[in-house]
């Protein structure tokens, strides 16, 4: 293991659509006042964001749409561009499609090219698993920049420039 330090430089996030309160959800699914009280009391969620437009019953934003927004915000927050990224790791329990992987769609939209990508399909623990995979690759020097929809990581020291022909899992060639 290397002595490289991995730290979060920036975080980007994105939520689909406007917040939907419990009353609107109850009206859409014809639930009574008792159901609304139960949700408020036992679940405690007052509003939520849905990727489906309840008025028309169709998706409003895809996982790739949200991932692109969050990743662009994380890059901007770190003051970095697509050319600074050498690894993209995405955790999702809801990929848009299996092929192409949602991570590749996001990387392509952001013009992050010629670098390895990983998509970990997992539920709640996927966030922790993604951070573990990315930080391990960074700390060992197998990759030296990483961007994901949950955050932006960079080691303290940058190794010699990479040779693109040594990388696999590219999104497209330069």
Mean pLDDT: 79
State the helical fraction: 25-40%
Q: Specify the CATH architecture of the largest domain.
A: 3-Layer(aba) Sandwich
What's the gyration radius in Å?
A: 19 Å
Biggest sheet: strands side by side, in what order? 1-9-8
**Quick one: CATH superfamily of the largest domain?**
Thiolase/Chalcone synthase
Question: What is the approximate shape?
Answer: elongated
Gap between N and C termini: 31 Å
Indicate the low-confidence ranges by residue numbers. Answer: 145-174
H/E series, N to C? EEHHEEEHEHEHEE
**CATH uppermost class of the largest domain:** Alpha Beta
Largest sheet: 3 strands, antiparallel
Count of helical segments? 5
CATH topology of the largest domain: Peroxisomal Thiolase, Chain A, domain 1
Structure summarized in a few sentences:
By secondary structure, this protein is an alpha+beta fold.
Report on the architecture of this protein.
32% of the residues lie in helices and 18% in strands. The protein has helices at residues 22-28, 33-43, 63-78, 102-109, 126-139, and strands spanning 6-10, 20-21, 47-48, 52-53, 58-59, 88-92, 117-121, 146-148, 151-155. The strands form 4 sheets. A 3-stranded antiparallel β-sheet has the order 1-9-8. A two-stranded antiparallel sheet has the order 2-3. Helix 4 links the parallel strand 6 (88-92) and strand 7.
What brief labels describe this structure?
5 helices; 174 residues; three-stranded antiparallel β-sheet; alpha+beta; disordered C terminus; 32% helix; two-stranded antiparallel ribbon; Peroxisomal Thiolase, Chain A, domain 1; single chain
């Amino acid at each position: 293991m290397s002595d490289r330090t991995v730290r979060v430089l920036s975080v980007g996030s994105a939520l689909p659509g406007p917040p939907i309160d419990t009353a609107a959800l109850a009206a859409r699914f014809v639930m009574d006042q008792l159901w609304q009280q139960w949700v408020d009391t036992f679940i405690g969620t007052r509003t939520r964001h849905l990727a489906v437009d309840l008025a028309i019953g169709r998706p409003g934003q895809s996982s790739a749409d949200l991932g692109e927004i969050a990743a662009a915000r994380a890059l901007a927050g770190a003051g970095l561009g697509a050319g600074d990224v050498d690894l993209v790791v995405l955790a999702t329990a809801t990929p848009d499609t299996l092929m192409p992987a949602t991570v590749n769609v996001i990387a392509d939209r952001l013009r992050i090219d010629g670098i390895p990508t990983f998509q970990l399909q997992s539920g709640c623990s996927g966030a922790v698993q993604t951070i573990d995979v990315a930080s391990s690759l960074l700390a060992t020097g197998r990759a030296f920049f990483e961007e994901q929809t949950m955050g932006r990581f960079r080691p303290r020291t940058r190794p010699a420039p990479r040779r693109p022909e040594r990388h696999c899992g590219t999104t497209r060639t330069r």
